[in-house]
Amino acid sequence: MRSLTVDQITKLYRTGTEALSGVSFAVEPGTMLAVVGHNGAGKSTLLNIVSGLIRPTSGTVTTDARRGRLMWTPQRTMVDWSLTVRQNIELVARLTGTPGSSVDRVLELLDLDKVQSRQAEYISGGQLQRVQIGRALVAEAAVYVLDEPTAGLDPAAGELVMEHLRERAAAGATVLVSSHDLDAVERTASELVLLDEGRLRAHLPIQEFVRRAGATMKVNVVFAEPMPEPYPDRLDTALPPEWTLQTDADRTGLSVQVPLATGLRPVLAWLPPELQVQDLSAEKQSLRDVYLARYAERTPTPESVMVQQ
Amino acid sequence: MKTSLTLARFHLLSVWNWRTSHLSRVIEAPAYFLFMVTGLNTLAAGTRIEGMAYDDFAYAGVLVVIAIRALFWCMGDVANDRKWGVYAVARTTDVSFPQYIGSILAANTLVASVQVAAILVLKQLLGRGNPVQDLRMAGLAVLVCLLTVLTGCALGFGINSYSKRDLMTSLFSLPLVMTAPLFYSLDDLPVFMRVLAAVNPFTYCVLLVRSPAADTFPTQAVAGCLVAALLVAGALYLASGRHELASNEQG
Prior knowledge:
Chain A is of the alpha/beta class. Chain A has helices at about 45-50, 85-95, 100-110, 125-135, 155-170, 180-190, 205-210, 235, 265-270, 285-295; strands at about 5-10, 20-25, 30-35, 60-65, 70-75, 145, 175-180, 190-195, 200-205, 215-225, 245, 255-260, 275-285, 305. In chain A, helix 2 (about 85-95) packs across helix 3.
């Protein structure tokens, strides 16, 4: 069952800019999908189209209306400056038939209860962002679309918001969220859509994306005693081709970099038993690492699209 | 209906929260009226204009000024709602286009009606009133306000930038006031002014508002207002399907 289907969305602005080109993907209920990509990749355009704020030039977005409504938060500040913090959130609650207790709960969750009587024009940028998020979260919805909700928030608030979104997804909602905080994305989201120059480059579960994007794991080994001859040269000869090895000058340790998919077990099996390991640690490349290594630059030529088979 | 009233309530809260910047709406019309009946009235020196006392003539003119102002306030309200996401929030929470228009209509017509009532009361307080005739004129003015509020709605959907909004207000509000026979008769004015008046919809609006003080049925005014109403309905119909939910205006 799909709660949201994006089918061949293209958006051509009047300026002639093609913001999106033939983007398609589908999301199941209970998914927290992160939309990532560089500035200008088309993330906001995509989310604005999914929210219904703007229309695609061609293509369709289908939401399962039987499951309920769609709530959204835009990237740019869009609050009613003439209303108070509470009134901004209460407006949505009233229109959706949500009880007033939800307004109180959201104000408290987002730490807005102390400024709830202030007009939007008199609060800080971070608080404005919280008001926007509060508007999206005050009512129960089947689909939440949030465009960079953590931008402008302090780290703790950003973490809180992402965690809350994860909880909504766990409760069965579909959450689409764009963010440049890839560490937070990796911690909270389950799937990822990568856009580049308005084109879909990947739609995969995050760990699958990290693996297929060529992430590596660095295993650091410290021996109880310096390696005797004929080590470390013998280690080199037995090294699988896709592994890279670095040994310490004093022969007391080594680092071996292997594809993430390899796992730790083959590395342990590769270590000669006569070398007594005192300490061993592994550093996996994160989503942020592989993104920076491979996708941070705009790709001049299209690559193949990575999707779940 | 309930949804429209809910939204209208928030529009009125908005007016109340920004009451200091809306003070001009309270002051302008009574100030115009006082200036006309206690100042310019002396120029008329007791002569009747288009068959009525200058107090009645200016009274209708001020009521139509309120309607013109309502048009631009309403245009700004809709433009703000699209800029601030209020319209998008409403539409994505299943508020229909007619329900939204209903909310704007309710809030802005209520504010305009209060302004009209203030002028009505002021005229009586100045001892220049004819209560029944003035009340009928005020009622017609509220009908004209309904029309101008709807026009403002239609225009608001075409506004995507502050500069466009500013241009519309500054370019059109004064000419609309000056080329309609709101405070002076067109009879002695140059031909080009009379031509401009003929294409100014507020010429017909003010004729309609003045009709209780005239002896004849205002055929021309009713026809003009009906044409204007049809044009507004057409503009709203076009607006209903051609706009994005949010404008790209920043801030």
